[in-house]
Write a structure and sequence with these properties.
It is built from 13 helices and no strands. By secondary structure, the chain is mainly α. The protein is globular, with a radius of gyration of 18 Å.
Length: about 270
């Protein structure tokens, strides 16, 4: 009998690679639009002189990227977590096997870093400019405490929204749009406080090339803590059994490797 981690790897390696590729593509998009909207030589920077305007369009771009990845064949199959904090939350809620969650986290970190490296090869010195800085997420001018609190709050709200919407029969199919809407709003309004990460793998990928390690602990602590708090709130107000699966988009025929009860959701309202 093979060890559990070997069995998981042999059975579910396609989903692990999909998670890596999805976050990698997300980071390529983040780097691309940050360069287009923030580099001083970009015409868009001149066309949109106000930072809030540029953040608004960045938010729209990243929301669109998120939707494209969730609705892609890869996203439909892997569940499109693209975030170690999401995977840890679903592990806590009993929707993932331990080794699946562990490999998801490992491959998400690898994918996030690979995406920034690919972007650096594509754009060269453009990404290294101080105004672009490899799309790194850093605490804002209000300091570390505010950045931590902001990351914790926005992550918790995102996770609660996903849990509530994805586990209601009438709303479940719209879960990606709720998540994308929050992404757009957060980038527009919250980014000046914490850089709007919500994702340790996303932050580390940029930080490695940007050498942006100041207060990086925020992005390793606040997002998982925020999502675990959301899980506790949901379990205490509903129940762990009220969580049917760990996919953001489940209205498809792609394989599901989670402890899935999505079919039950189609039969009765939660």
């Amino acid at each position: 009998m093979k060890p559990d981690f070997i069995a998981s790897l042999r059975s579910h390696w396609p989903e692990y690679l999909m998670e890596a590729a999805e976050l990698g593509l997300f980071m390529v998009s983040a780097c691309t639009f940050t360069a287009l909207l923030e580099h001083p030589a970009s015409p868009l920077r001149t066309l949109l002189p106000e930072p809030v305007e540029r953040r608004f369009f960045t938010g729209l771009a990243m929301a669109g990227t998120l939707l494209a990845l969730v609705y892609s064949d890869w996203g439909k199959r892997s569940g499109a977590h693209m975030n170690p904090a999401f995977s840890l939350m679903y592990l806590r809620l009993g929707k993932m096997e331990t080794w699946d969650a562990a490999f998801y986290v490992i491959f998400q970190f690898a994918g996030g870093t690979a995406g920034v490296l690919i972007s650096a090869l594509l754009f060269g010195g453009l990404l290294a400019h101080a105004d672009v800085n490899y799309a790194a997420t850093r605490p804002g001018m209000r300091g570390v405490v505010v950045a931590f609190a902001a990351e914790l709050l926005i992550t918790m709200v995102l996770a609660l929204t996903v849990l509530v919407v994805s586990n209601r029969k009438t709303l479940a199919r719209f879960t990606p749009f709720f998540a994308a809407g929050l992404f757009a709003a957060y980038i527009t309004l919250e980014a000046p406080l914490s850089g709007m990460s919500m994702n340790p793998a996303r932050t580390l990928g940029s930080a490695l090339l940007a050498h942006a390690f100041h207060a990086i602990w925020i992005y390793f602590v606040a997002p998982p803590l925020g999502m675990l708090l959301a899980a506790e709130i949901y379990v205490r107000t509903k129940s762990a059994r009220a969580v049917h699966c760990a996919k953001l988009h489940h209205h498809n025929r792609a394989r599901c490797i989670f402890r899935c009860r999505h079919a039950e959701l189609q039969g009765a309202e939660v």
